[in-house]
Amino acid sequence: MTENTDLKEYWENKPRLLPNVSIDCVIFGFHDNQLKILLLKYKNTEYYALPGGFINLEEDLSDAALRVLEERTGLRDIYLEQFHVFGKTDRRYDETHRQIMAGNGITMKPNHFLMNRFISIGYYALIDLSKAAPKPDGLSDTCDWYDLYKIPSLIFDHNEILQKALETLRLALDEKLVGFNLLPETFTINEIQKLYETVLNEKLVRSNFQRKILSLGILERIEKKMTGAANKAPYLYKFIGE
Amino acid sequence: MTENTDLKEYWENKPRLLPNVSIDCVIFGFHDNQLKILLLKYKNTEYYALPGGFINLEEDLSDAALRVLEERTGLRDIYLEQFHVFGKTDRRYDETHRQIMAGNGITMKPNHFLMNRFISIGYYALIDLSKAAPKPDGLSDTCDWYDLYKIPSLIFDHNEILQKALETLRLALDEKLVGFNLLPETFTINEIQKLYETVLNEKLVRSNFQRKILSLGILERIEKKMTGAANKAPYLYKFIGE
DNA sequence: CGATTATTGTCACATTTTGATACAATGATA
DNA sequence: TATCATTGTATCAAAATGTGACAATAATCG
Question: Is the per-residue pLDDT at A1 higher than 80?
Answer without folding.
Answer: no
